């Protein structure tokens, strides 16, 4: 991508994120459906509904939660809290309630952050039936003693869990898998950045020439959605050769890659190599059984080669899980930079192969073939010598790139030039 294209795509992803931002999503319900239906204008997503009560490994698909309105009114009938102002105001999965109660009692159901008095926190209670509100601490302190009317017009009933999937067939059935969570309400970096980058990535790959790999993009509610997807696709997971969980891709932080549980899977090596070549700070973390849905994909019964690709890791920035994780916290250029890096990873996965040097006894005479002229710079000459030396019919281009500390794309381009001069033959 050139600079103009990158900034156009970054802005398009940010626009998409801004339009998805107000929707009140949760692990089930109409917010997820509406989000997926907006994505369908970009991708022919297949939408799956899995009924409440369905057993998925050790879990059960929960009741479906929907919310229409919620408020707290003071004795004068004035709304001192209004769900329509911000979807974070209601604890996700709150059961319906309509009661009057003294402030003292109501406060037991209100969460605020005294350390960050101007933000609304994000809270959920998926598996324990309860109700609650989230408020700016400053607003909470202004509530006067007295009686308040509280209403949460929600429903928690048998229904289904919804997820979206896009499958793009390639030349082989081996798959590259991308997963993004879509269960957070108005939170931008945490959930929506992964959603919009994943959707754009899918449309860019779909618009290109047919790929070697097939691609599968999952847009799923965190944890229970990943568990449900795995339970319904257990056989198919054997096709997954490489995968990434995409999340937190729009903040200003450096790219952070959390390795798969395997630690030395090809995806782990490819991401390390690509990050080491982009000339920007980055961090690589070993696997740990916490974080996003890599927890499920890398559970021992699956142990898939799936890492987690993000910028600032979850929970490390003050905006995390608060109303300050909003569209202005997300930068179009960060979204575009994340997408561009993932495309480079895909390029390596797609393009890695093995060559054999057809003139392996001593160096071939390059000057006679015009190769020193064709590959002008010292850097290119060095790369050419590495390729010729390591093209032993066993070493992959990625292994050459790692050993020579030369970007994959450069070695791959030079290998094609050498092939056209008959000095290399492609083995795989
Ligand atoms: Zn989160």
Q: What report would you give on this structure?
A:
- The chain is an alpha/beta fold.
- The chain has three domains: 251 residues, Aminopeptidase (3-Layer(aba) Sandwich), CATH 3.40.630.10; 82 residues, Domain of unknown function DUF2172 (Glucose Oxidase, domain 1, 3-Layer(bba) Sandwich), CATH 3.50.30.90; 74 residues, Arc Repressor Mutant, subunit A.
- Helices cover 33% and strands 23% of the residues.
- The protein has 13 helices and 19 strands.
- Strands 1-10-12-11-13-16-14-15 form an eight-stranded mixed β-sheet, with helices on both faces. It has a four-stranded antiparallel β-sheet with strand order 5-4-9-6.
- α1 packs across α5, α1 packs across α9 and α5 packs across α9.
- The protein is elongated, with a radius of gyration of 25 Å.
- The two termini are 28 Å apart.
- Bound molecules: zinc ion (ZN).
- Zinc ion (ZN) binds next to loops.
Summarize, please.
The protein is α/β, with parallel strands linked by helices and 428 residues long. It is 33% helix and 23% strand. The protein has helices spanning 3-20, 30-39, 103-106, 137-142, 188-207, 224-232, 266-277, 294-297, 332-351, 371-374, 378-390, 397-404, 408-420, and strands spanning 46-51, 55-56, 59-60, 64-73, 79-82, 97-102, 110-111, 133-134, 147-157, 160-168, 175-181, 214-220, 240-246, 255-258, 282-285, 306-310, 354-357, 392-396, 424-426.
């Amino acid at each position: 991508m050139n600079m103009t294209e990158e900034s156009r795509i970054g802005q398009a992803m940010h626009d998409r994120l801004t339009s998805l931002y107000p929707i009140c999503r949760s692990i089930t319900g109409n917010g997820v459906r509406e989000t997926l239906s907006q994505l369908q204008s970009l991708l022919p997503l297949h939408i799956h509904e899995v009924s409440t009560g369905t057993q998925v490994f050790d879990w059960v698909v929960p009741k479906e939660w929907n919310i229409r309105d919620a408020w707290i009114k003071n004795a004068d009938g004035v709304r001192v809290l209004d769900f329509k102002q911000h979807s974070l105001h209601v604890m996700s999965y709150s059961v319906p309630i309509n009661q009057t109660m003294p402030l003292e009692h109501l406060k037991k159901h209100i969460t605020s952050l005294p350390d960050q008095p101007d933000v609304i926190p994000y809270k959920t209670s998926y598996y324990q039936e309860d109700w609650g509100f989230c408020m700016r601490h400053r607003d909470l302190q202004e509530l006067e003693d007295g009686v308040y009317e509280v209403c949460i017009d929600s429903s928690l009933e048998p229904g289904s869990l919804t997820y979206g999937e896009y499958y793009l067939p390639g030349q082989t059935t081996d798959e590259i898998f991308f997963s993004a969570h879509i269960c957070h309400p108005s939170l931008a970096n945490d959930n929506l950045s992964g959603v919009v980058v994943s959707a754009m990535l899918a449309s860019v790959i779909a618009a290109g020439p047919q790929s070697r790999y097939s691609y599968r993009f999952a847009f799923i509610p965190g944890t229970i959605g990943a568990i449900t997807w795995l339970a319904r696709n257990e056989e198919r997971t054997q096709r997954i050769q490489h995968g990434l969980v995409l999340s937190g891709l729009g903040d200003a932080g450096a790219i952070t890659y959390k390795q798969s549980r395997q630690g030395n899977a090809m995806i782990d090596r490819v991401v390390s190599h690509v990050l080491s070549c982009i000339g920007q700070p980055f961090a690589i973390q070993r696997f740990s059984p916490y974080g996003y849905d890599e927890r499920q994909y890398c559970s021992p019964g699956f142990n898939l080669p799936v890492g987690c690709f993000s910028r600032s890791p979850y929970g490390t920035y003050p905006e995390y899980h608060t109303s300050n994780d909003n569209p202005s916290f997300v930068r179009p250029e960060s979204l575009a930079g994340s997408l561009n890096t993932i495309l480079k990873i895909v390029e390596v996965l797609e393009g890695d192969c093995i060559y054999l040097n057809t003139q392996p006894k001593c160096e071939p005479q390059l000057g006679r073939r015009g190769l020193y002229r064709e590959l002008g710079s010292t850097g290119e000459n060095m790369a050419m010598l590495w390729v010729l030396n390591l093209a032993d019919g066993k070493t992959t281009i990625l292994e050459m790139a790692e050993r020579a500390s030369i970007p994959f794309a450069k070695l791959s381009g030079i290998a094609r030039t050498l092939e056209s001069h008959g000095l290399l033959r492609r083995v795989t």
